[in-house]
Amino acid sequence: MGFRMPEVILPEFAHLIGDSAEITGSGETFAHVYPGNGEVTREIRLADETDVDRAVAAARAAQASWRAMPGDKRRDLMFRLAAVIEQHAAQMSPLLSVENGSILLAGPHMSADAAQKFRYFGGWADKLEGRTVPTWGGSAHDYVGYEPYGTVGIIVPWNGPLFAATMVMAPALAAGNCVVLKAPETAPWSIMKLVELVRLAGFPPGVVNLVTGGPSVGAAMVEHPGIDKIEFIGSGATARKILASAAQSLKPVGLELGGKSAVLVFADADLQAAAKRGLSGAISANGQGCVNGTRLLVAREIYEPYVAMLKAMAAHIKVGDPFGMDTVMGPVISEAALNRIHGMVTRGISEGGRVICGAERMGGDHAAGAFYPITILADVTPESEIARNEVFGPVLIVTPFDSEEEAVLLANDTDYGLGAYIHTTDLTRAHRVAGQMMAGQVQVNGSGEAMTPCVPFGGMKHSGHGRLGGIEGLREFQQVRNVWINLL
Ligand code: NAD
């Protein structure tokens, strides 16, 4: 029963250490499960700390020549990788679906996005200019230059591994760093394929190294003295452990964490468009996107019509086989995730949430996989658990507001600060409200278009610090050196 997993050619190797592509690591064996029907796709022998050690040594051996390579040569390699990714998009798409149940239709977009990141940051690689500083009194010649860190460790989550890995790799490589990348064991295939393509594009051995593994492999990377900077994308709970470890080594750590992003719908909004975009917060990445707008704050005068519109639109969303050509939403990552999501929804109802749709596990063909329906709870109070914590599933909550001031207060009344979405046709209001959002990325009349390599992305408050994307993303992987020359 359930949705059949098609034959998919999985990547050959799970680890890349220097020029050694290795099928097995030295760690434990892990059975990867396809969330569409609960079947094991393949057993992987994961890395352990000895493999991390070797990967770091390989990166460090490659470091000096990668840093010294002229920027135009690094640029050309990154452009070549972009082209190779595009050429292999058809092979990448099914891997993205098998690894975490994302819909096949999203695959081409994910490959295109990965290619664009290497193009965008490849374009910076030959423009890593410094600047001169006019000194007070003119007694010295002073200039600022930018240096790579050396070796960057990259740890990413399962919900969008290709997306997350490339948003770090591209700027880190452009800036002249080597990388040790960890593919999450729960969704490893797209990163393994990406690293295969890195080789095909002709990157020198050791510039990009791959270890596949879980928390212990990540912890070994954070502890490793040969890794100069960690970029972590994942949960706040893991970030706390990483920061505790980094407190010993004094290693810099960039953090891209979770969110509870508000969607503000004002009475003057294009209601139809705002409902469609509001619903996307439940659908995008099968409801498991860090920046999904999941906390809908709606002007009271349009509250009921808006909720009714959401319900009607949700009824038309096909949830099912990730490989189906008309499927709009697939499963969540695992049974454990499904149970956690359902628990939060159940408690949200007991705290006063009104069920508009969903809130029950799906049966029939869906029962074998981890399928949870689009769930909308209205009248959720701001203090309830489901209004305050990240659900990380296809669940929207809706709360009314009576004034712009109240909307802003509610939007900012969260520990998180990743995204905020504003729906209004009043441009003055759009700027006024955007300027008050305590969130790293504010979108007006949008729902994800800003997730593009050329603009900075990242969080405020518990959503992390540092930025990926744009010139700010490049700077994350550069250190500043100031040179002061006394004029004799
Ligand atoms: P997680 O924190 O459990 O795991 C993330 C990664 O950290 C995995 O690769 C895991 O193996 C590794 N890890 C676990 N323990 C570790 C340790 N002690 N030391 C080092 N590494 C360790 O998160 P998850 O469940 O995989 O992902 C979901 C979370 O990620 C959500 O909170 C989501 O919002 C967040 N996320 C954020 C962004 C962003 O860009 N802000 C993007 C995607 C996901």
Automatic annotation (TrEMBL):
<feature type="active site">
    <location>
        <position position="256"/>
    </location>
</feature>
<dbReference type="InterPro" id="IPR016163">
    <property type="entry name" value="Ald_DH_C"/>
</dbReference>
<feature type="domain" description="Aldehyde dehydrogenase">
    <location>
        <begin position="26"/>
        <end position="483"/>
    </location>
</feature>
<dbReference type="InterPro" id="IPR016162">
    <property type="entry name" value="Ald_DH_N"/>
</dbReference>
<protein>
    <submittedName>
        <fullName>Aldehyde dehydrogenase</fullName>
    </submittedName>
</protein>
<dbReference type="InterPro" id="IPR015590">
    <property type="entry name" value="Aldehyde_DH_dom"/>
</dbReference>
<dbReference type="InterPro" id="IPR029510">
    <property type="entry name" value="Ald_DH_CS_GLU"/>
</dbReference>
<comment type="similarity">
    <text>Belongs to the aldehyde dehydrogenase family.</text>
</comment>
<dbReference type="Pfam" id="PF00171">
    <property type="entry name" value="Aldedh"/>
</dbReference>
<dbReference type="GO" id="GO:0016620">
    <property type="term" value="F:oxidoreductase activity, acting on the aldehyde or oxo group of donors, NAD or NADP as acceptor"/>
</dbReference>
<dbReference type="InterPro" id="IPR016161">
    <property type="entry name" value="Ald_DH/histidinol_DH"/>
</dbReference>
<keyword id="KW-0560">Oxidoreductase</keyword>
